């Protein structure tokens, strides 16, 4: 006979803690927001927000290309959430679709039953993907999609080929698997990372070939098609074509990370399409959520997927997570892809992006001592400043040059802060090369928005470096 469980102390009724309501959140002032951010979210990040002046801003609304702050100031968004806002903020068709989905009381969690929305989304993603990139896994973040990409590739490569090649200055996410193929101490910290991976310079085909030749246990190569965090770094078509040929020759699976550069940002649905090659596995995220929700996808060639999975025995090891393919995110992504094509946004990224790049090159010619390089494709654009010492009068250069490494990022910081303060323009930085400003406006960006951006940027650079530094320092004091 079972021994009866001893009775525990009588439980007191549950009391509601001191909670804030949605109305409280909506009405929150900037000091309270700052205090709570510091107390509960990320005190370290607040330090940088203060430097840039971002901490004074409470966003009340966002629409199209603009944020609107607590004072009604309209801020032009050339940051675009690091490529998460292909459709801009609160695209009306996205809002409508999501409202209809809610009003119809559709089911969200598709673990017991299949979802017609997730099925249609997977169909559409396969339809947008060249070759036989047909098999889709739905997740919630770029990191999750890239984890799924590395997992399918690892299983398809087989147990004797566990090594992964990745690139210098790469960024593939912050979960441990993808962190292991992400370069840079900024993110790797001192975590105990996975695998016996090999790092090669990005864009160096000889280094790839040498690695393949030296290590027969390499099974996978993982590369961003355009490096975002690395400073908007591209590799030429020749590189990608040789890479495809080498992967075929050595039987290595190529995983193309399109989390940031995919979904039309460069003027093609996938950035690799510019080079006439197809990877074995790829991943999308960011803008796939239409700027309203978390949605990501891993897409694998059918034969790779079938080698890795595809049987009842392997069904559960890669089945989606709790929120993978959730209803509202699937319906949002479905609508997002339709909007991209129906509104001609991919063509617009190519055309208006080329205009943006041409205008920036014009400014480079006007300010050659400040702007070192303009690069990128479509609306994935990097603008690199010279090292700080090089922007100063010749007599000061040698003395300041010794500080250049320490000062990396300072000019981008000054310019970013003043663009926001004085010209109502938001831009982003790149993590690894901090001399680079990253411009990833929504794909709805028109020439008029480019003109507004260029006008503000031109006016700021026209002040000259000394005035820019002085104005920034003053902004810190005030
Ligand atoms: C190229 C690339 N891969 C992966 C990721 C990770 O995506 P997430 O932040 O959604 O996990 C990012 C995010 O910035 C990215 O830029």
Q: What descriptive keywords fit this protein?
A:
478 residues, alpha/beta, Aspartate Aminotransferase, domain 1, Aspartate Aminotransferase, domain 2, 42% helix, 15% strand, binds pyridoxal-5'-phosphate, amino-acid biosynthesis, pyridoxal phosphate, identical protein binding, transferase, PyrdxlP-dep_Trfase
Percentage of residues in helical conformation: 40-55%
Instruction: Enumerate the distinct ligands.
Output: pyridoxal-5'-phosphate
- Which percent range describes the beta-strand content? 5-15%
Largest sheet, described in full?
7 strands, mixed
The H-level CATH homologous superfamily of the largest domain, spelled out, is: Type I PLP-dependent aspartate aminotransferase-like (Major domain)
Q: How many distinct helices?
A: 19
Q: What's the rounded overall pLDDT mean?
A: 94
* CATH architectural name of the largest domain: 3-Layer(aba) Sandwich
CATH class bucket of the largest domain: Alpha Beta
- How many structural domains are formed by the residues? 2
Supply Rg. 24 Å
How would you describe the overall organization of this protein?
With 478 residues, the chain is of the alpha/beta class. The chain has 2 domains: 57-86 and 345-477, Aspartate Aminotransferase, domain 1, CATH 3.90.1150.10; 93-342, Type I PLP-dependent aspartate aminotransferase-like (Major domain) (Aspartate Aminotransferase, domain 2, 3-Layer(aba) Sandwich). The protein is 42% helix and 15% strand. It is built from 19 helices and 15 strands. The strands form 3 sheets. The protein has a 7-stranded mixed β-sheet with strand order 4-10-9-8-7-5-6, sandwiched between helices. Strands 1-2-3-13 form a 4-stranded mixed β-sheet. A hairpin with a 4-residue loop joins strand 2 (66-69) and strand 3 (74-77). Helix 6 runs parallel beside helix 13 (327-342). The longest helix is centred in the C-terminal third of the chain and has 22 residues, at 345-366. It is globular and about 80 Å long. The termini are far apart. It binds pyridoxal-5'-phosphate (PLP). Residues 82, 141-143, 146, 171-173, 224, 228, 257, 259-260, 285 line the site of pyridoxal-5'-phosphate.
């Amino acid at each position: 006979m079972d021994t009866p469980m001893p009775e525990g102390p009588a439980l007191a009724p549950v009391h509601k803690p001191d909670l804030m309501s949605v109305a409280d959140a909506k009405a929150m002032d900037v000091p309270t927001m700052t205090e709570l951010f510091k107390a509960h979210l990320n005190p370290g990040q607040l330090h940088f927000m203060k430097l840039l002046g971002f901490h004074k801003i409470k966003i009340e609304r966002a629409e199209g290309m603009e944020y609107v702050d607590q004072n009604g100031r309209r801020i032009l968004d050339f940051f675009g959430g690091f490529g998460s806002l292909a459709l801009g903020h609160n695209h009306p068709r996205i809002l409508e679709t999501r409202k209809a989905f809610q009003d119809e009381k559709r089911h969200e969690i598709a673990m017991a039953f299949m979802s017609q929305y997730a099925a249609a989304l997977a169909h559409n993603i396969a339809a947008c993907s060249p070759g036989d990139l047909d098999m889709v896994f739905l997740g919630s973040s770029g990191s999750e999609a890239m984890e799924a990409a590395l997992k399918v590739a690892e299983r398809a490569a087989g147990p004797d080929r566990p090594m992964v090649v990745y690139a210098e200055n790469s960024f593939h996410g912050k979960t441990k698997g993808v962190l292991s193929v992400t370069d840079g101490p900024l993110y790797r910290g001192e975590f105990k990372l996975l695998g016996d991976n090999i790092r090669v310079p990005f864009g160096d085909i000889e280094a790839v070939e040498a690695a393949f030749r030296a290590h027969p246990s390499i099974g996978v190569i993982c590369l961003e098609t355009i490096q975002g965090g690395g400073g908007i770094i591209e590799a030429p078509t020749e590189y990608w074509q040789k890479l495809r040929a080498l992967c075929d020759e050595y039987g290595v699976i190529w995983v193309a990370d399109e989390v940031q550069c995919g979904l039309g940002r460069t003027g093609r649905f996938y950035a690799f399409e510019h080079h006439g090659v197809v990877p074995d596995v790829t991943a999308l995220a960011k803008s796939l959520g239409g700027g309203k929700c978390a949605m990501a996808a891993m897409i694998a060639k059918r034969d790779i997927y079938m080698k890795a999975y595809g049987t009842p025995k392997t069904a559960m090891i890669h089945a989606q997570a709790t929120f993978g393919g959730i209803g509202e995110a699937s319906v949002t992504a479905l609508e997002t892809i339709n909007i991209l094509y129906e509104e001609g946004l991919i063509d617009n990224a190519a055309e208006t992006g080329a205009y943006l790049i041409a205008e920036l090159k014009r400014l480079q010619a006007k300010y050659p001592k400040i702007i070192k390089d303009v690069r990128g494709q479509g609306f994935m654009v990097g603008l690199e400043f010279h090292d700080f010492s090089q922007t100063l009068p010749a007599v000061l250069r040698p003395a300041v040059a010794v500080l250049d490494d320490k000062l990396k990022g300072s000019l981008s910081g000054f310019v970013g802060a003043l663009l926001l303060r004085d010209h109502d323009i938001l831009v982003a930085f790149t993590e690894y090369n901090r001399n680079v400003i990253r411009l990833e406006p929504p794909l709805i960006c028109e020439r008029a928005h480019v003109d507004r951006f260029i006008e503000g940027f031109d006016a700021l650079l026209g002040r000259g470096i000394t005035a820019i530094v002085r104005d920034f320092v003053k902004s810190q004091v005030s």
